[in-house]
Amino acid sequence: MGYIKGYDSDTLRELVDETACAERLAEIESQRSLPALLERVWLLKVLGRLDESLSLSDESVRVARMAGTRKDVLRSRVLHATVLQYRGAYAAAEQELATCASEAEGQGWASIAAFAHQNHGKNAYDAGDFDIARESFKRALFLRREAGAPDAELETALLAIEAAEKRRSGQLVAG
Q1: Mind listing the pLDDT tens digit for each residue in 143-167?
Q2: Contacts of 155 (CB under 8 A, 6+ apart)
Q3: Any idea what the CATH number is for the domain that residue 62 is in?
Q4: Nearest in space to 116 (alpha carbons), one of 128, 99, 131, 132
Q5: Domain span holding position 16
Q6: pTM across the whole model
Q7: Rounded Cα gap, residues 101 and 16, in angstroms
């Protein structure tokens, strides 16, 4: 998705072109395919429309279970967990992301496992558990390298590791 302009160094959340996101959302609003549903969930999430995003996310998981592949189900569940994270439901998001990461790794799906680990790290980061965040980001980096991910994805993981280490150091100094 070309709507991401960068990442906030404090929150690790996507910095998006809100106008472009809103325009894209309007463009695909009536589409019912799984890829369109997932894109709509993400767009609603980054636009801060979390209630709508959660509702549509629940629907996307159901659609994936009925008509998608196991990979589709995992992607839908990871995205659902990120909506929970944005809503502050860190424990529920942690459980779902850890389960998805484990299942993807068990199947040998490195890119989906990396996606789950990266988001597991972001959830831990938001929850203030910077040790877990750092470990999850490191695992995502390893899996992305294994999957031959582009440099931009590797850079995102490296920046997240660095941010978690800075926050962790800040906690140790403050404590």
Answers
A1: 999 999 999 999 999 999 999 999 9
A2: none
A3: 1.25.40.10
A4: 99
A5: 4-174
A6: 0.93
A7: 26
